[in-house]
Write a structure and sequence with these properties.
single chain, 272 residues, mainly beta, Lipocalin, 2 domains, eight-stranded antiparallel barrel, 18 strands
Length: 272
């Protein structure tokens, strides 16, 4: 691993990992970008959500009374609360898909109602919309159709606001992160140096659960500082987002020294 990063991290060690300035532990809202549906009992229709900042662009594919497909869009669905969004629902029309060149001037839309989303959690919510005088209310969940695998070498670990031995602190376990995943079984090992320049290791094991575009891991962890046993506890990582460059999620946990940890876990892929 890069020596400079090791030295910086080693200078900051406190209890579980390393002390960070207060600004290092931050919070952010859930990203609802995903393909959503009404569950297996309502296979065939769906809602595609692109979430950027405080606005959602939603496309809804459903069916008419005669079974023919119907498409609606809601391109200005703004946040109305921490986990709720609402905006006009449009019925659009445009150039025939096989036309070349495409005639952008033929595009147009008519507002037919309102679309509202209320999320009860990162993976579930309620969709309400109307087309004219016809109201619709549906429970929705993320749709998982392709498994992800976290296996790889990363530069990363855990950063959290912690309460340890009666003291509030910001903690960091950070350096080389190696992840192996077989099916739903995940092992994540962080190798780092503590304040005494002793080579240390924290091992996190758990069960991986795919939930649409995001995932979660729950399990236990243990740390060793040189040959000395350290923190042992349980944890959960939720809202894990994966990309070509790495992964990250929201971390909560506790152990034999710290009654709570709340922060983030993840890493950037290492080229080695």
């Amino acid at each position: 691993m890069i020596t400079t990063l090791r030295n910086i991290a080693a200078a900051l060690v406190v209890a579980l990992g390393f002390a960070l300035p207060a600004s290092a532990a931050t919070t952010s809202g859930t990203d609802y970008t995903d393909l959503w549906w009404g569950g297996g009992s309502e296979n065939g229709w769906g809602l595609n959500i692109i979430h950027q900042g405080s606005i959602i662009f939603a496309t809804l594919y459903v069916y008419n009374a005669d079974g023919s497909p119907r498409f609606f869009s809601a391109s200005s669905t703004f946040a109305t609360g921490a986990n709720s969004f609402s905006g006009p629902l449009y019925d659009t029309h445009g150039t025939y898909y096989a036309t070349n060149p495409y005639n952008a001037a033929a595009f147009g839309g008519t507002q037919v109602g309102t679309l509202t989303l209320n999320f009860s959690g990162p993976n579930a919510g309620t969709l309400q919309y109307n087309v004219g005088n016809t109201p619709v209310t549906k429970s929705i969940t993320r749709f998982a159709f392709g498994p992800n695998n976290l296996t790889g070498h990363y530069l990363g670990g855990m950063t959290a606001a912690s309460f340890c031995n009666g003291v509030s602190q910001n903690s960091l376990i950070f350096d080389t992160l190696n992840v192996t995943q077989s099916g739903n079984s995940v092992t994540m090992i962080v190798d780092f140096y503590n304040a005494q320049q002793v080579q240390s290791r924290c091992t996190f094991t758990g069960a991986f659960n795919q939930q649409g575009n995001i995932a979660s891991i729950s399990g236990g962890f243990s740390c060793v500082y040189g040959s000395t046993p350290g923190n042992v506890g349980s944890y959960s990582i939720t809202e894990i987002v994966m990309s070509q460059t790495g992964f990250s999620g929201k971390f909560t946990g506790s152990d034999n020294f710290c009654s709570s940890h709340s922060g983030y876990f993840g890493g950037v892929k290492d080229v080695i």
